[in-house]
Amino acid sequence: MKNKKNILIIAHRGASSIAPENTLKAFQKAIDLNADFIEFDVYKSKDGELVIWHDAEISQKDGQMSFIKDLKLEKLKSIDVGEGEKITTLGEIIEIAKGRIGLQCEVKAQNFGKDLIGILKKEDLIETSIISSFIFSELLELQKLDSNLKLGLLLSKEILSSRMVIKFCKKAIDNNFFAIHPYWKAINKEIVDFAHSNNLLVNIWTHIYEPIEDSVLKEVVRMDIDGLIHDDIQQAKRVIREN
What we know:
Elements: E1 8-12, H1 24-32, E2 37-44, E3 50-52, E4 57-59, E5 65-67, H2 73-76, E6 88-89, H3 90-97, E7 102-107, H4 113-122, E8 129-133, H5 136-145, E9 150-154, H6 162-174, E10 179-181, H7 189-197, E11 201-205, H8 214-221, E12 227-230, H9 233-242
Parallel strand pairs: 1-2, 1-12, 2-7, 7-8, 8-9, 9-10, 10-11, 11-12
Antiparallel strand pairs: 2-3, 3-6, 4-5
Helix pairs in contact: 1-3, 6-7, 8-9
């Protein structure tokens, strides 16, 4: 059985329990707290920059909502996203993270995978990066660009039945994906054992706006998961240490 203390701590949108999510401040705190990976969401700006933000839209200074894809980087950089932090680019993340922490890039939209993979290859980060997405077809397209990618299929929080999670595990296995990323409430030992028997890792994710008691999180960790995508790094480390 896998040693529980080898569970990867993947900082969900950075150390987002103590800093504005998806910002350099949150990513730096995750590095300082010795997380194994930082998880972040990627979009493409109007002028072709890969930028980090969770939603397709962002509120401008006047309160107007605009799509990330419709704004140039200069405009995006003028927006305060919390505590004086600005929109982060993929290049800025790489600058502070390379050689210090792994990257888990969540692809939120289609048609910029080639740019993302090109940057990761140029920076020699393919081996230490996981590419995840809820968009199954996009993961298949990324795989065509580089068969060595570590791909993780994200499952929405609405997918809770074991039957459905196993079904998606089979799709991931059939396509030689690296991992399945189900919502934490959907996981059980049967699913983990099935995935492991087929060389598929199980990295569960939690929601940053739904705090979890230590005792509950310990039960999840005891199911022999491989990674915990969580916003509270200190809690994750405490729970794993005490198991």
